[in-house]
Amino acid sequence: MFSRLSKLIPWTFFQSLGKTFMLPVALLSFCGIMMGIGSSLSSHDVLRLLPFLDVTPLQLLFTWMSKIGSFGFSFLPVMFCLAIPLGLASNNKGVAAFAGFVGYCVFNLAINFYFTAAGILPSTDPAVLKAHDIRSVLGIQAVDTGVLGSVLVGTVVYWLHEKFQGTKLPDAFSFFGGVRFVPIVTTLATGALGLLVPLVWPWFASGINGLGNAIQDAGMWGPMLFGTGERLLLPFGLHHILVALIRFTEAGGTEIVCGQPVSGALTIFQAQLSCVSTSGFSESATQFLSQGKMPAFLGGLPGAALAMYHCARPENRARIKGLLISGVVACIVSGTTEPLEFLFLFVAPFLYVLHAVLTGLGFMVMSLLGVTIGNTDGNVIDFVVFGILHGTATRWYLVPLVCAVWFGAYYAIFRVLITRFNIQTPGREPENEASAELVAAASTATTAQSGYNATAMLAALGGKGNILALDNCLTRLRLSVKDTALIDDAVLKAHRALGVIRLDAHTVQVIIGTQVQSVKDDLDLMMTKA
User: Fold this and answer.
1) Of 31, 105, 403, 473, which residue is the catalytic one?
2) Does 81 participate in catalysis according to the annotation?
3) I want to staple 270 with a disulfide (CB 3.0 to 4.6 A). Which of 73, 225, 306, 337 is the partner?
């Protein structure tokens, strides 16, 4: 399946692009928690319930938290425009990020120029501004292209940076050569790109709105399609693309919040968090957010982990218990599911497809029940901060009930299918001499700072000479290699890798889990020494 798709999809670029989304999204998640705590503890409902909080120092603290948390919402597009060239650039990353900011500003100034030359701007007429989708972007009246526009500009800036950072100019102009030429050529290119936006954006926006309308018109099936699709894209590393589309663009809906139009499920939710005149959260927005993940993340996957433990050979249960417990903790506390999902994805893909469908069903059920818990991670922190602390209006009390049902369903389904089809989940694999030697070597080998045997893992990746590029996301190593045939999956798994995905002949992902950054740092150190 991977080999056929790799001929059609530029995996290396898209997995790298998806990785760059994680920097602003991580900050956005933190900002959301700050806004959630600040706005909830200063709300009238909470103050009636906990009157001891209604003192000036505490209320100033909560207001401050809400205010600085709004940063993520207010400057989201420019964060993406900085993060994309920063994350994709091979070197001189600071210059790439600086050029990203320059490009985004010039892009919007060029749009403003077009409307000014056409006699549409300057204007304060709401009807005129709405007709051309003009809003204030960093203080510039321009078409609000949102995250899609920043992704476009960021990608263009990355390409310009890679192409022109080594530019040599004649001696008379040499001062402007090299990396200094990157923001210069960025100014020219994004200035020209901005002139095209008013011409093509209406049709493009119509397409995005059409997608959003299709999802919204799907009624109760819309959240299910989103939740299932996001899980199915995860093994390919492309789920961030779909998530960003729904969270930050018109595809996730558009609503008026505090008198301003806001697009995207997550941006709508965060705008309502920071708007003092808003009472409650939009069901049409939160149906795509944390609440939909909670049945699978807080109930289902822990049930699957227990089923895998009970299905393991008795003599192997002690060996896999730590692996399963750490996966459950990561899932519940941080919303990181891959350490559990990749335990059964490769040995039984149909189990993963079933899990994706059940996740989507969780999105649909929470929407039908009228639960309104926002943010991004679907973990216990989101449940407490954006559910319990905002009162019974969020219907948080339904979450434990639904999660209990999902726990039982996952446990029963996984246990029956694992035993019925003899699926080789952890602890069930047949023990042979080769695997025994690998496990013994992994358990006795000297480990690096990460706790993993970086030397053995580097060798299993084909050595330093086989690695062209090494990076990581939240849970996996992302590598470009000369030849994937040189990679030894068995050795990597014996040294605690959860799985290996070959996307094409030169692109591979090694699933590690939450310690992936430390493993990547150890491998970098080993490659430097080599």
Assistant:
1) 473
2) no
3) 73
